[in-house]
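Build the 3D complex.
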Amino acid sequence: MLEVKDLVVAYGKVKAVKGTSLTVEKRQVVSLLGTNGAGKTTTLRTISGLLRPESGEIWFEGERIDKTPAHQVVIKGLAHSPEGRRIFPKLTVEDNLLLGAFARKDTAGIATDLDRVFALFDILKERRTQPAGTFSGGEQQMLAIGRAMLSRPRLLMLDEPSMGLSPLMMQKIMSTIRALQAEGVTILLVEQNAAAALRLSDRAYVLEVGSITLEGTGQQLLGDDRVKRAYLGED
Amino acid sequence: MKIPTLVTPELQKQYGRLGRLVALAGALLFALSPYLPWAYPRTALDNMTYLGAPSTVQFLGLSLGVLELFALVGSHMAAGVARVRGTTHLLHRVAWNRAARAGALGMIAFIGLIIVVVALETGGLANLEYGAWIALVAAGIATAGSRFLAPGRESTLDRAPANPVLEILTIAGLLGGSLFLLAFALDQDDGGTFVVLLAHIAIMVTIALRSGVGAWLSLAGQRHRNVLVFSAFAVAFLFPFTQNGSDANMSIATQVLIFATTAVGLNIVVGLAGLLDLGYIAFLGAGAFTAATLSESTFATIGWKPPFIVVMIIAGLISATLGLLIGTPTLRVSGDYLAIVTLAFGEIFRITMNNLDGSDGPDLVHGSSGIPAIPNLNLFGFDFGEPHVIAGITLGRFANYFFLMLLIIAVIIVVFTRLNHSRIGRGWVAIREDERAAEAMGVNVFGLKLLAFAGGAFLAGFAGAVKAHVDVSVTPEQYIFLESAFLLAAIVLGGMGTVLGVIIGATLLKLVPEKLRFMSEYRMLIFGLLMVVMMRFRPEGMVANTRRQLEFHSDDQELAAEVDEDLPYEFVEERA
Ligand SMILES: Nc1ncnc2c1ncn2[C@@H]1O[C@H](COP(=O)(O)OP(=O)(O)OP(=O)(O)O)[C@@H](O)[C@H]1O
Ligand SMILES: [Mg+2]
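Done.
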């Protein structure tokens, strides 16, 4: 469904991603692991069209999208919940969610999806008219995920969805990801909590200073010694 | 404004009743003082020399006194029911004490201003007669007394159940009243009287805000938006009929309307899309020059004379094209560049027009002398230059253009509100807040910005075409940077992103200098001071856009309100 080939992305002269390739199959959950500064966020931002690659190709459902403007990538069905949430703090919860559906025009479908998000996160429903900036960090994270869901994506990219969440909320996010997968949404996940991410993943990649150093199924990587040492904190 | 608290809450508790009595006496005296002569010379304001016959200005004072009496009586009644929780009657929800405290200060400000103005106009305090001093003393007594009233809890009028009939009647009544006020204000040739009138309005508004009536009114306005809009248009439509064929005021009113229309157009660009356009006046100018060169004027340089409707559209399109030309390269980069580029564009436009004079460039608009003698419009056989008599009232040339502008501003307001509540409007807010995040949401950032920018330019060109005919001649010096600055000021003062606020702001900014010509040297100084004061005390403008208000005062107020809500009634009384 998504194929990234030899991607090179640079900020000025500094290359942040150096020839990364990865593949995401339909209905899979794929994780992208890596230390801080490895280039995970950069990769996602390039896929969603917010950054332009220096070289390499990005294919989404048989279409090359590495020159497509960001707002058209969303229309093609690829949503991105950015790192650090990036919600609109002065807009109400509802306006934030509706902005997720900005690229859609099917009013009825939007209403259904809005209800679905409200069913998933009841706190959002309770406070739908409240400015989003008054939310706690975890609540903002739920809003960010809900907002990404509202574009009804076929591929959803989540950049550290559990950042700042309590273990309970973390579990809720993970089960939401499973539920989305069951509904047919494909997910590309960047997560610091490697154990939780790998348990969920059909496939995973490890990114180190801009290059993929390891790949395999979630189970394989969970058992890998290097992964255990570097990301799971085991000896 | 914070007045130092000499009177502590303990004193207020102890002497509250006495204070109310004293204030009552002061207010009564103040309300009677207009029946005494306030000044010796007849020329001081509007002849306040008679015993027993108040002038209009004195009547304004009287109205303040009566209002204060009313507030004090209300305060007395409310004190009786203060302990009853959950009273729902509207009158019980008014913050009477706050109104009375503000009203008394307003009385001092009012009479103080009159004394200063009379002294300045006639050359000394000696020209004031005993009535004015009595009024000042009365206002002082009322203020001293009212300080002993505890402000009490904030009004809960904004949480009162809806009362459609009362709300609609109030809106209609207020707007009807404002028609007469407007007609009266425009009739004041004396700058001093005009200032006093403005002050009176400001005092009334303050009292309304302090008492909670203001909040109730704004809620009522939101609930009955259609009534409000319709009444406002009815008032504007009826205004020419109050002028009895006099062109003096109608010419001002028409200029105000053109200015307001342009400001609402700019508000789409600035208030909705958040693009700082410092050269908007050039788009108005482009429209005016287009219309002038295509007009029947013997100085027009283009032989083609299409009907005016076509001219308007061409004018709009030319402005929009200019907008696209400067918008396309600049809107991709960050906001600061746009401000600089539009500022430069405004100047380039003016200088280019100056140079299209036959010696530095083609003789398209005759350079600095511009295109004069633009004939009046003639739409569908209706000659805008001819007076018309309707129901025995003569409507002159400017009234004709006034009606045309009213139609155009209506169109622009419809465009504005449609956009604001649409998907596009939501996209603009998102861009204003976080451009990158908006892009990730699928918002076509560049496209939407360009739409706002070029669309705003189109509307300005549209209005400019009419302006050319109203002004009779079009010259480059009508379209200087200062005009752009004033347009922006109207938006900022009135309330960015609102229609009502911007219209009020535009009216004030255009009307006040017209009426206060004697102060024209200080115009920029006063204007600057006003801006500073506004930015300090009410950055969201006179009428606040709800989304915008969050940007300026976020949590603290809400928190305070919540805390007050949770406290039992008695505690709030005690604490205040
Ligand atoms: N806007 C930028 N300008 C310059 N360099 C940048 C920019 N954004 C990121 N970088 C650099 O690119 C490299 C990769 O950053 P990126 O944000 O992709 O890392 P990451 O894998 O998401 O890290 P983390 O786990 O901390 O979020 C880092 O060295 C970072 O300093
Ligand atoms: Mg990152």
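The interface with chain B takes residues 48, 50, 69-71, 73-75, 80, 82, 86-91, 95, 98-100, 102-103, 131, 133-134, 147, 151 of chain A (CB under 8 Å).
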